[in-house]
């Protein structure tokens, strides 16, 4: 049984050496309008396992946000959710190195990462290609 004293309270965020410990609502693209804006105004980079779109922020907000699209052809629900968790974690760990703006990641059928390092490598490669990584 876990003690409630060890877990952070709702609304609190912790900090680790690699970045913030949360992937909260401010880091997510959740409605159709921002997705459409990224698709129409953003840059598209195609990789072997994923496709990345990146659009500069509408306002002067320095934060990067992530939206995910994972088709059923990638696998069953368990496989799709695992891949989404890996992509969110890759984004969260590298968020401070990214330019502000909105990112949409489409995981291509056949995508199967062994672990976080492979997901992070693919994501950073395409972010660099799109010009979304800070120098």
If you had to describe this structure to a student in words, what would you say it looks like?
32% of the residues lie in helices and 17% in strands. It starts with 31 loop residues before the first helix and ends in a 5-residue tail after the last helix. The radius of gyration is 15 Å and the shape is globular. Residues 1-19 have low confidence and may be disordered. With 135 residues, it is of the alpha+beta class. It contains three helices and four strands, in the order αβββαβα. Strands 1-2-4-3 form a four-stranded mixed β-sheet, with helices on both faces. The chain has a domain at 26-108: 2-Layer Sandwich (Ribosomal Protein S5, domain 2), CATH 3.30.230.
Name some characteristics of this structure.
135 residues; globular; 3 helices; Ribosomal Protein S5, domain 2
Order of helices and strands: HEEEHEH
Any low-confidence stretches, pLDDT <50, length ≥5?
1-19
Biggest sheet strand line-up? 1-2-4-3
CATH top-level class of the domain at 26-108 = Alpha Beta
CATH topology of the domain at 26-108: Ribosomal Protein S5, domain 2
Distance between the termini: 45 Å
Rg calculated over all Cα atoms: 15 Å
**Overall pLDDT:** 83
Number of helices: 3
Largest sheet: 4 strands, mixed
β-strand number = 4
Helix content: 25-40%
Strand fraction equals 15-25%
């Amino acid at each position: 049984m876990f003690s409630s004293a060890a877990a952070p309270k709702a609304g609190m965020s912790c900090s680790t050496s690699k970045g913030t410990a949360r992937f909260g609502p401010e880091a997510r693209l959740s409605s159709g309008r921002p997705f459409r804006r990224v698709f129409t105004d953003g840059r598209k980079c195609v990789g072997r396992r994923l496709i990345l779109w990146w659009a500069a922020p509408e306002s002067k907000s320095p934060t990067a946000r992530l939206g995910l699209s994972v088709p059923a052809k990638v696998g069953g629900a368990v496989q799709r959710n695992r891949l989404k968790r890996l992509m969110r974690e890759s984004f969260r760990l590298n968020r401070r190195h990214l330019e502000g703006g909105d990112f949409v990641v489409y995981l291509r059928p056949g995508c199967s990462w062994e672990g976080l390092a492979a997901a992070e490598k693919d994501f950073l490669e395409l972010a660099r290609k799109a010009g979304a990584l800070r120098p």
